[in-house]
User: Fold this.
Amino acid sequence: MSNSALAINRVEYQEGAIAGRQWEVLDIAFAAATDPQQAGEIEIAADFTGPDGTAISVDGFDDGDSRFVIRFTPNKPGSWTFSVRSPVAALDGKQGSLSVQAAGQDRKGGVVIAKESPTRFEYENGERYYPIAFECDWLFALDAENPDDIPQTRRFVDTLAENGFNQVVMNVFAYDVNWPKDDRLDKAFDYGSPNVYPFGGHNENPDHSRLNIEYFQRLDRVIDYLDQKGIVAHLMIYVWNKNVNWPEADSQADNRYFDYVVRRYQAFPNMVWDISKEALGYGHNDVHYISHRIDRLRKADAYSRLVTVHDYGYCRRFPEKVDFVSVQLWLSELYSVMRDVVKNIPGKPILNIEHGGYERGPYVVFTGNYTSPEVCLERAYQCIFAGTFPTHYWQGAAWNVIIPDIDQLPADEQPRLDYYRHMRSFVDRYRVDELVAGDRKANAGFCLHDNADTLIYYIPKECDFIGIRLPSERRGETMTATWFDPYTGEYSKPENHKITQWPSLKVPAGDGFRILVLNLDAP
Assistant:
């Protein structure tokens, strides 16, 4: 298989110093003849020592054709040393060194919980990370049958990056949906029942006793390209309702698959783990299985990447097991629902991974409760104003259907991804994750504020006027009002107003909700 689609620095093992860079993935490959029937089972690991004495032990993986790989991402520049451990005599005891340069431009490290607030994210270098997620379950499949390149994947991922998305919720593998498909669906866009499988055999006739290493080699290209584009891979290791022929839970084959996924993808700095989509929703297992998977993952993951479970019930019962919460809540009054989640699970970042909005596309794939792009946007902003994070679904790129090149669609069938480009600009400009949520400070709508002079209001489309509630000591001072149109990304000309006992502002004309940015002027 060609490696031309990979940015990973791949080197053959050598005794001299190997060149690397901080927060960039490095594959150190070793050759050793082994029994092909043991694919995925032979163990290899390396103990690394960093320039400040930091020690990290990393499990490697079998990459097929008598090749074994230690995939390592150094978190510090400087000189590193390593020593290999393996039951294979040809591998055991090999030693080497790395010469690691400082991080290149735009390399920020992995996503972690913010040091100053347990409800926010940041990168390892301390820069803030505000997730706007996009679910694309079958992203693995776009070029899975192309041995040489990933043109479809690049085209679609580029579109997401251009429109402000920085997290993709995806499966390691899914097979097909269990509901009827639209008769009009173009087969070119239906990636259900793919002719690929992470195990031996095929999904309909599996050989769970061995792994299909070539499948994972091709999945590498997808995770790697997301990393190149600054997009987090929110990787769901399992999915129960997409007709996958999985091995028996907690069997040797199940554990082999699970451990291999962790070993192969832990080094990617853009990785966050999700044990399973809708983890407890289909009777496949129970909370004990999910908890044991988390424990197994944390033991194997040398980088301590963030872990979540796509199940609100599980996260609410066992908040100590997850680093951030994933909820699937569709209720109509979404802001209040999300505020309840914040109260029920305090001190954790919260991602509404499915809010029931599935923006319509040229084919009916799955409708949920809301298909209007404008209503989907409203619900995403309600998550934001509740102090939580949103995920967007488009029916042309979720589940089994993906239309990689949206520009080929008629304008009225294209998704309104531009709405999320404007959202990205807004949340970054005002650093909304650092603002206080939950205080109304008005007679309608929702408010974010900095406990000082900046207040930002979500004002529902039903409002013609908004009554502002400000401290009495500010009366007689002035405030500056700027209106933001979330559909166009445009800001109004700032207007100055005197703060009265009951200040009220007229909402600009339009069919949708508006956002008001209010700055209280210094006296």
